[in-house]
Amino acid sequence: MLKEGEFRIPSGCAISGIIDKKGKRFSGEEIIKSIALMHERSNGLGGGFAAYGIYPQYKELYAFHIFYDNLSVKSQVEDFLTKHFEIESAGNIPTKSVPNIKDQPLIWRYFVSPKIYMSKEEVMDEDEFTSRRVIRINTEYKGAYVLSSGKNMGAFKGVGYPEDIGEFFMLDRYEAYMWTAHGRFPTNTPGWWGGAHPFTMLNWSVVHNGEISSYDANRRFVEMFGYKCTLQTDTEVITYLFDLLVRKHKMPLEKALKAVAAPFWDDIERESKEVQNELKSIRTVYASALINGPFSIVLGCAKGMIALNDRIKLRSLVAAEKGDRTYIASEESAIKIICDNPDKIWSPKGGEAVIALLEGGNNEPKF
Amino acid sequence: MNLNFNSPLFEVIRDEKKCVKCKLCVVQCSNKVHLYDEKKDIFKVDDMKCVNCHRCAVLCPTKALVIKKYPLEYRENAMWTDSTIKEIYKQSQTGGVLLSSMGNPNPFPVYWDKMLLNASQVTNPSIDPLREPMETKVMIGRKPEKLEFDSKGKLTTKMYPQVELSVPVMFAAMSYGAISKNAHEALARAADDLGICYNTGEGGLNKDFYKYGKNTVVQVASGRFGVHKEYLNAGVAIEIKIGQGAKPGIGGHLPGRKVGEDVSYTRMIPAGSDAISPALHHDIYSIEDLRQLIFSLKEVTRYEKPIFVKIAAVHNAAAIASGAVRAGSDAIVVDGFRGGTGAAPTRVRDNVGIPIELALASIDQRLREEGIRNQVSLLISGSVRNSADIVKAIALGADAVCIGTAALIALGCHMCRTCVAGKCNWGIATQDPELVKRLDPEVMYKRLVNLVSAWNHEIQELLGGMGINAVDSLRGNRLMLAGIDLNEKELKILGIKYAGE
């Protein structure tokens, strides 16, 4: 059977996310409980988490989480890493044995910074330098896969139910100010750990429920800008879209959201002249960035969390607020189980983003 | 002696029992096929003159007329076919270049029919266009590489001019001269009604039609017929015609018999003179010259109108298209080898150029590899027959399509492919006032509106089935296509997978 990335696998899913907007950190227990409630929405073929704020001691360094199929590819990738990065620390990610989790790859973690002279020679900033190296490892080293590469954040994922994956990675021992989770219901069984979600790129992480029908239009659009969609998954292309719009094209986040979940032309016509002009321009220039078909996504970045539905709400998505926290989940029950009395709970409209960002004090970190 | 070896192409059969002798056929046939002998009270028929335009058969009140292929056959021969033999007879008799009308009729592969569309099942829902919004609007013109915003989040990028099409369809360039004034009026009014554009072709713009400016693309071809400042500013966009799918490498042909007073005035040429456009623009010998013309046209229109460059689909169309984008063209129009024409040398029409599907796929891919696809619009023409062809073209990478032949068929064209004679019985490809009168723009523009509206419904239906609610998400979405009866190479060029793969 072909591995993920060699063909396209549609899948349904459960998603969940929690952020403390004051930046207060909390353990992974709650997010596991939330995603576990939606057990029926996944089928044991993929689960994963993204956690932000977990490596405060290394917050200036890129944290690479890497899967290896064997030791030989590990040594090749480490040669590559040594050549391009200063490695501050390296070691395997601690796991514990869980009955339902098997066939795990070698799972390693590195805290690195780009070799400054190299990024200067190539006239690109550290982020661009790092993201290009990550894409290279993922495309050129068979049997190696970088599952996350951001700062002060990390992804943990694998083949299994998400609650088992959480236990396997002992996420109750990590503390983060923001967690997102994903339970996967793929339509077939490649059984590859790299194929589980979330998908990440630098600080971006995406968990997503749905199957986007604009996939190939979006893929061929981002690939014009140097990305390579090696996994053929929706999350991958959505992540690259946001990376392109917000990081590379420096679009304000709320404008980027208007590109991926564009308002209808008829609705644009009803806006004031100025707004009309802006929305028209966004739709015209970024027509190929429109994400079409059913989706609900939770997008994580260093600044916070953004949840978004497709513009006619073909997938369920519920949001809630209590105190400093914002919750997002595919189902209301998955919020209620960890927050029994929210101040506010609602079902966001299609195309209307829920934006929950860290409040001040954080020196305006980059997306 | 001028011996004619040729036999008729068609046979006109009259059912005497049905015929009521109303003589409508005699009156209607501009080719003088039907004659009525008063003395003998019988009809005579000259099969030699029949072009099979169906005018008499369709209008006959009792349906007493049938036109069939002339039954006289040559001895069977796979190499020396009837048409091959007849063409030699014709040329040996006249010493002339063979001329043909409409697109290449030969049995080359039709790639539209070798691609199948996808639809949603279970994992993603289809979208019902009867119950949900379904957007088919497209914007044609140059796009900046990215948008820029100031620190307050206000848009600072100034957009290039765009042509807004409510449906991803335009009427293809067909000149006043090649087709009649009434046909032009029907196209212009339909474009206005539909919120799309028609294209003047290379024959200038009749004064009466300046009022349809916001739905007009004006063309500048190598003959520069009817080109002046007012004309250039009359439409919403200007198209520089480098080539045409029916006759790549040569210029337009308008026989002098179609150049009457009004055509002569509009084209700014003497009445009755052949309008033979040069094979090339005499100010364009290379890509940098194209750039100069593009920017001259932008200057004269104060950078308010996008400039399209139309090329024929030839072997290296991808490189040419890329060059045209870099030369400043805001949209590329690619015309395939099946594209129609009022008149073209038969050998050129039938042997030069490549299928539009392959050209489109390779141009779209090439522009993407160069990272410039998003900056330009890509339109195609030349054999788009129905809404499914349009959907497939967009999935391959087109922004929109231009329809010429299909539009003429909506106006009554019966594909007799004799436009060059100028005696079109349907009032389309003629300048004979008596024939032109037969095409009532008031009635006919509605047929065009009907056709495009019907296609738009079908496009919406197909989009919805794929789980897409804006045509933007179909553009270049080649996963929506699957090949059938194609070899590896064809699949590779089209960038699609085989059905079931």
| Low-confidence spans of chain B | none
| Helix share bin of chain A | 25-40%
Assign the CATH superfamily of the largest domain in chain B: Aldolase class I
C-alpha geometry of chain B: globular
* Tally of separate domains of chain B: 2
Please outline the major beta sheet of chain A: 7 strands, antiparallel
| Largest two-chain interface | A-B, 49 and 41 residues
Q: State the helix count of chain A.
A: 11
Question: What does this molecule look like?
Answer:
The complex is a heterodimer of chains A (367) and B (501). Chain A is α+β, with helices and mostly antiparallel strands and 367 residues long. Chain A has a domain at 11-203 and 296-357: Glutamine Phosphoribosylpyrophosphate, subunit 1, domain 1 (4-Layer Sandwich). Chain A contains 11 helices and 18 strands. Chain A has helices spanning 29-37, 71-84, 116-121, 126-140, 162-168, 215-223, 234-248, 253-260, 265-269, 273-285, 332-336, and strands at 11-20, 26-27, 47-52, 62-68, 85-92, 106-114, 144-148, 153-158, 175-176, 178-186, 199-201, 204-210, 295-301, 304-309, 318-322, 325-329, 344-346, 354-357. In chain A, the strands form 4 sheets. Chain A has a 7-stranded antiparallel β-sheet. In chain A, strands 11-12-13-14-18 form a 5-stranded antiparallel β-sheet, with helices on one face. A 4-stranded antiparallel β-sheet of chain A has the order 5-6-4-7. The longest helix of chain A has 15 residues, at 126-140. In chain B, helix 4 (181-194) crosses helix 14 (441-465) and helix 11 (387-396) crosses helix 14. Chain B has helices spanning 24-28, 55-59, 82-94, 181-194, 229-232, 261-267, 287-300, 317-326, 346-351, 356-369, 387-396, 405-410, 433-436, 441-465, 488-494, and strands at 10-14, 34-37, 42-45, 65-69, 99-100, 115-117, 138-140, 163-165, 169-171, 198-199, 216-220, 237-241, 253-254, 275-276, 307-312, 331-335, 344-345, 377-381, 400-403, 481-483, 497-498. Chain B is globular and about 90 Å long. Chain B is of the alpha/beta class and 501 residues long. In chain B, 29% of the residues lie in helices and 15% in strands. In chain B, the strands form 7 sheets. Chain B has an 8-stranded parallel β-sheet with strand order 9-19-18-16-15-12-11-10. A 3-stranded mixed β-sheet of chain B has the order 6-20-21, with helices on one face. Chain B contains 15 helices and 21 strands.
